[in-house]
Design goal:
By secondary structure, this protein is of the alpha+beta class. Helices cover 35% and strands 20% of the residues.
């Protein structure tokens, strides 16, 4: 699967030359003509080009210092994830041959893996993201700067965009045809000879059906919402209900993915633990959820106040709809929209909402809650949110019961952070110090938010080192 250029073998001695052939090049020497990187302009003076290439300047020495990797990782959505299977073996094989650049085909797309620049480059689009590795001696090698890109998401969004556009165009054409036929049939003459016309309003959200008040789903969702919301706001009313409809290939895939996740969770945990939950969001976010699935909220100005809230989808328990707006401020909207969801929880652990947790704390857990035995809310972490959550319907309502949560800043965390960083630098490999310095300076200059800083901080250092160092500081 891998195609890579390697150093040429030394020429054979001719029959009259009794001098033995020169010894082979040392194993750490890079090849003379590495595979060209599409991100870097070619130059006749290779040495001069390398001296100007910031990727090589900062990361190039790590390739020569490293043994063969036991793990190779890529940086996607603020997380370091592992390459698996055949891709990992091809990367290990290329590293063993000291080939600095490899051309690999992964899932029908071609990528250049550049160990000296610590980049994975998508050949067609020239998009790139950072790679890192841990060698067989246990030494980690991370780039100085992290570059984040989701190739699969980019491709999926393009496919979904084309599919959604095609589906919407088809739906509009079908709606026009049906509307014309309905208009013809629904023109009924009364006794006086005048004509009356009865046409229902169009749905407000994509991939939905606007339900009549006597519809079974309308009654179910409305009663379920008001039963618990009126305990907080007796004046709450439901204005309408939109039922989510599975439409097109993308809709069928979403449904199949959830059913498959139920089977996987049952096999792994013994039970899937499927529940109903509420999720409130502004109108355009609700439309995005129905059209393309859940996406993590972007809290750019959250500082360190919302570390966990940017790492997953927070949903209210079915009996606590007042907690449905944990991630979006909808309390000022005159009409609020709350999505009733079906959620595959699996094993649930206790999570403090103001903590720094951004993923399950241990392998045996899948999701989190404020109180697993008596929950007000759940969190489904970002890496599998669209495998574990599917919308059922949207309940539109007028209520003052859905209110924002007052968040507290842990000033002790701010106070010890400089000392924590200073102490951690003494405990981690020297290769990781530049990356830590870089993200810390970005955070201090307010160029990255607190949740982004925490994710990268944990990726570089590791939770164990952070907690051990913090405990040592607190004891001193």
């Amino acid at each position: 699967m891998a195609q890579a250029t390697e150093a040429c073998s030394p020429p054979r001695a001719n029959s009259l030359d009794l001098t033995p052939p020169p010894p082979p090049s040392p194993p750490l020497s890079p090849p003379a003509s590495p595979l060209s990187n599409p991100l870097v302009n070619s130059s006749s003076d290779h040495k001069d080009a390398c001296s100007r290439d910031p990727f090589i300047v900062h990361n190039g020495h790590k390739f020569n210092l490293s043994a063969v990797p036991s793990r190779v990782m890529f940086y996607r959505n603020m997380y370091w994830e592992d390459f698996q299977g055949e891709t990992l073996e091809s990367l290990r094989s290329g590293f063993l041959k000291r080939t600095p650049t490899l051309l690999l085909e992964v899932e029908d797309d071609k990528y250049i893996f550049d160990f000296t620049r610590m980049l994975q480059v998508h050949v067609a689009s020239k998009s790139f993201r950072s790679i890192a590795w841990i060698d067989e001696r246990g030494k980690p090698f991370f780039p100085v700067k992290f570059f984040d890109h989701d190739f699969s998401q980019e491709k999926m969004e393009e496919d979904h965009g084309r599919a959604a556009e095609k589906e919407n165009k088809k739906m509009e054409e079908d709606d026009d045809d049906k509307s014309d036929k309905r208009n013809e049939k629904m023109e009924v003459c009364d006794v006086s000879g005048s004509k009356t016309q009865s046409l229902g309003p169009k749905p407000k959200f994509p991939s939905t059906k606007l339900l009549a008040s006597d519809d079974k789903m309308y009654k179910f969702a409305s009663n379920l919402f008001l039963k618990h919301m009126t305990k907080v706001d007796p004046q709450a009313v439901v204005t309408n209900v939109h039922e989510f409809k599975v439409m097109g290939e993308f809709g069928r895939v979403r449904k199949d993915v959830l059913e498959r996740q139920i089977e996987i969770t049952e096999a792994k945990r013994g039970k899937a633990n499927v529940v109903y939950a509420w999720y409130a969001a502004p109108t355009f976010h609700v439309a995005g959820i129905l059209a393309l699935g859940f996406d993590l909220p972007d809290h750019k100005n959250s500082g360190i106040q919302l570390p966990s809230l940017g790492a997953g989808i927070f949903l209210a328990d079915v009996e606590s709809p007042q907690y449905s707006a944990l991630q979006y401020p909808v309390h000022q909207d005159p009409e609020k929209h709350v999505v009733l969801c079906r959620v595959v929880l699996g094993n649930v652990e206790k999570v403090h909402i103001e903590s720094n947790q951004t993923s399950p704390s241990r392998e045996e857990f899948d999701t989190g809650s404020d109180d697993p035995k008596n929950p007000n809310w759940y969190v489904v972490w970002g890496h599998d949110m669209n495998r574990r959550i599917t919308p059922i319907c949207v309940v539109s309502c007028k209520t003052t019961g859905i209110v924002p949560v007052e968040w507290k800043i842990f000033f002790c965390e701010i106070a010890i952070l400089p000392k924590l960083i200073s102490e951690i630098k003494k405990r981690i490999p020297i290769f990781n110090v530049p990356a830590l310095n870089y993200i810390y300076e970005m955070f201090k200059c307010k160029m990255v938010s607190g949740d982004v800083f925490i994710r990268q901080f944990r990726s570089i250092v590791g939770d164990r080192v952070i907690w051990e160092t913090a405990k040592a500081i607190m004891r001193s």
